[in-house]
Amino acid sequence: MSARRDGRLRDLAVSALDEVTFATDGSSAHRPAPVSLLIAANWDLTGTTRVFSRDDPSGAWAGADLAEDRPAPGFLPQVRSLGRHRDRVTGIDHVFAGQDPRGIFSGTYDPAVAGHIRWTATLELDLSGVSAAGLSGLRRSSAG
């Protein structure tokens, strides 16, 4: 667990956990052998959205910040789902993180970055323009 600047813990709970296997990198180059990573997301009391990946040989976890949103009463920005997909056109293996309130982030395998996943800055699916009206799961307090 990590601490905020004031020394208090910032990680409340794990919100999603999955294993993803990459046979390619982000440029569609095939790996000599597929690489599997355990990935996890958390409820971060600061509103930072992070996805962690585990390095099996060392057992170390590395986190990647995807977004920063303001927590509100009754609402904490977070990744709620993780998934994987091989693009049929490019052949590239992708990992996806579904985050509330922004949308879906995507990443590809890159051994040169911490955690071995290069997350894109542009959302795969941007939910910022989607109205929450009529969607009970998306209703937030008036402060959100």
List the helices and strands and how they pair.
Blueprint: E1 11-24, E2 30-44, E3 48-54, E4 61-68, E5 78-86, E6 93-100, E7 103-109, E8 117-119, E9 125-126
Antiparallel strand pairs: 1-2, 2-3, 3-4, 5-6, 6-7, 7-8, 7-9
Using brief descriptors, characterize the structure shown.
single chain; 144 residues; mainly beta; 5-stranded antiparallel β-sheet; 4-stranded antiparallel β-sheet; 0% helix
What does this structure look like?
This protein is mainly β and 144 residues long. The chain has no helices and nine strands. The protein has strands at 11-24, 30-44, 48-54, 61-68, 78-86, 93-100, 103-109, 117-119, 125-126. The strands form two sheets. Strands 5, 6, 7, 8 and 9 form a five-stranded antiparallel beta sheet that branches. Strand 7 and strand 8 form a beta hairpin. The mean pLDDT is 88.
Helix content: under 10%
Low-confidence stretches: none
- Backbone CA Rg: 16 Å
Order of helices and strands: EEEEEEEEE
Mean residue pLDDT: 88
Give the CA-CA distance, first to last residue. Answer: 27 Å
Secondary structure tally: strands: 9
Question: In what range is the share of β-strand residues?
Answer: over 45%
Assign the structural class, choosing from mainly alpha, mainly beta, alpha/beta, alpha+beta, or little secondary structure.
mainly beta
Q: Give the overall shape.
A: globular
* Main beta sheet: 5 strands, antiparallel
